[in-house]
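Sequence only, no structure available. Ideas?
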Amino acid sequence: MVPKNPFLLPRNKEGFIDQEGIFKIVYTQLRQPYGILDDLTVQEIHWLIEGYLESQREHYEMIANAMKIAGASIMSGKDLKLFDSPEKVGNVELSEEELRSRREADLELLASKFGDF
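Reply:
I predicted one. Tokens follow.
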């Protein structure tokens, strides 16, 4: 019978802690420095893995909420603007000549850095 896993540590078929699984988690996913497992207890490793899983859960929940908001906005017919229009800087609208001079200055800067294109 496999004993119940009190921690979030990977177990092998016999129910013992899987050392290779812990190495993969701690050194690849958590990006901890080599040799840190020599100084940590099982409880501390559990806390590391638990914190990592919590941060991953929050990250994916944030993405899911952003997708829900975007979907609701699209379904309601709202136009989602990802960037401000270049015609407006702050609360000041730019004239066509100012826009043209800014674009030419940007192109000159790019040409000086990367050559003509």
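The longest helix spans residues 42-75.
Hope that gets you unstuck.
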